[in-house]
Amino acid sequence: MRALIRKYNYIPVLATFFVMGFCDVVGIATSYVKQDFGLSEGVAGFIPSMVFIWFLLVSIPAAMLMNKLGRKTMVQISNAVTFVGMLIPFFSYSLVSVMAAFVMLGIGNTILQISLNPLLSNVVEENKLSSSLTGGQVVKALSSFSAPFLALLAVNYLGNWKFLFTIYAGITLLSFLLLELTFIPREEVSSGGTGMRASFSLLKDRTVLLTFLGIAFIVGIDVGVNTVSPKLLIERCSLPVEKASLGSSAYFICRTVGAFIGVWLLSRMNDIKYLKINLFCAAAAMGLLFFAQSMPLILVGVAAVGFFCSSVFSVLFSQALKARPEKSNEISGFMITGVAGGAVIPPLMGLSAQLTGNQTGSLVVLALCLIYLIYCAFAVGSQRVATKE
């Protein structure tokens, strides 16, 4: 039995990616919180920042700590922080308590993303890392996709959407127990420096710099589309908040399908080529959203962006790890710092929407992010060819 558990020890690791998807609840939660507390568009635009700003502040210190405690221990710490945070709205539901829950969720998710991605490399072979990371993104996408439905379940059967947090607390506890019972070999830690200066010195590697910025922008797109899709349906189709959550659902359904297909395709074709094709298709879908005025067209555009952007994060992350494998912990911490793009892009979208008077302004910000990602795909590809030569 012990041998069987060791053979399939990657399953509990992949299952923990479901907890990683909890941060995406901020998309639909923004609409609920804005409605419950009468917030303006500009103020509501800062709600995702309560979750994603911690990726900027906590990532590198957590990566340094991970060298001492180990990846699995850090994953368990993240589960504990998330569990506590998800219980807060159950005992007190106010704007302050909800923001506190988002803060705890953000800190826990930051630690989780730093430790869980490299922990996967403890249980899978290097040539399977890109597809395995994409497999983790499938599980994460399933979690993100389920958020609007769990929120509706909480409203219809428990009386308030806030009980979604309680459901998340239970799932997090289950993840903690499952991982605790699983043997995972401890990784080797490099003997080089692990301080702030050593981490930032990684920017001297061009691939690390390009992928770091790429992760910032793809997370910004992920959070931004998740946030703006209900708003587009409310603004252009006059849907109520509850029905406008269809936008988030369509996005996450197709992101899940795209990640699932990506696992299969990335094991069979060049990952950079796959990245370029998907980004060009995502740009076309984004263009559709600028002109779509009906609910079907908006949903198609949102769904297509989700589908074609589903594997971008994992491909960029794997390129960074492959560039400096001896610094995988430091690379992971630094890359996850880029997830703070989810705290920067939504406020910029909110400001742009206020300046233009509609959500088209938000789409302009997202389009600029996609333009950089297309450049990044070609630049990283060229850098990899140059390195081989």
Structure at a glance:
The protein has helices at residues 2-7, 10-20, 26-37, 41-44, 47-52, 54-69, 71-91, 95-120, 129-158, 163-180, 196-200, 206-237, 241-244, 246-266, 271-291, 295-308, 312-323, 328-337, 341-356, 360-388. With 389 residues, it is mostly helical. The model has no long low-confidence stretch (mean pLDDT 83).
Explain how this protein is built.
By secondary structure, this protein is mainly α. The protein has a single domain, classed as MFS general substrate transporter like domains (Growth Hormone, Chain: A). It has 20 helices and no strands. It has helices spanning 2-7, 10-20, 26-37, 41-44, 47-52, 54-69, 71-91, 95-120, 129-158, 163-180, 196-200, 206-237, 241-244, 246-266, 271-291, 295-308, 312-323, 328-337, 341-356, 360-388. The N and C termini lie far apart (47 Å).
The helix/strand order is: HHHHHHHHHHHHHHHHHHHH
Largest sheet: none
CATH superfamily annotation? MFS general substrate transporter like domains
What would the principal axes of the Cα set say about the shape? globular
User: How much strand?
Assistant: under 5%
Rg, alpha carbons? 20 Å
